[in-house]
Amino acid sequence: MTRLDSAIRRLTAQRDLLNWAARHMAPTGLVLEVGLGNGRTYDHLRDLMPGRSIYVFERSPAAHPDCYPPDGYLLVGDVFETLPAFTARFGQGTAALIHVDIGTGDDEANRQIARRLSPLLERPLQPGGLLIGDRPFNMPSCRDISAKTGVPEGRYYVYCRE
Ligand code: SAM
Hints:
By secondary structure, the chain is α/β, with parallel strands linked by helices.
């Protein structure tokens, strides 16, 4: 598989899963987008879920100008600081969907990010809330339901809070 093939597969899985989440998520609850990047997945989420409150976490905003969240919905800073602050402000169990896409090309760094981020992601998820991630997370209160979504194994990961 070429790197182009690989990129297309990853983006296809990402889009398919966001579409799947829009059909399966609870009718109420916040949406958290972790990693704005150039705003592609944020743009897709807001298109899929008009009227939902979508909060975005990004340490270095540099998105396409059309893909910025409205005032108050972009939380700038290191997610290891902004996400706990968000949970302290809104309380635990408020998010119907969290999408995480903050990986780099460094597998070991990615593993460490996932290990540190897992407990911070678990707290804001509401019961039945979905977490979609670009890597595996270790969240004891959540079931790994990746296999039920139709996404090719190992490409993207989906968890449901018990
Ligand atoms: N999903 C986005 C899209 O479709 O355009 C791409 C996200 S990009 C792969 C990852 C983003 O995560 C980058 O913009 C990076 O700055 C951000 N990021 C990485 N580590 C972060 C951290 N610790 N806190 C906040 N943002 C972070």
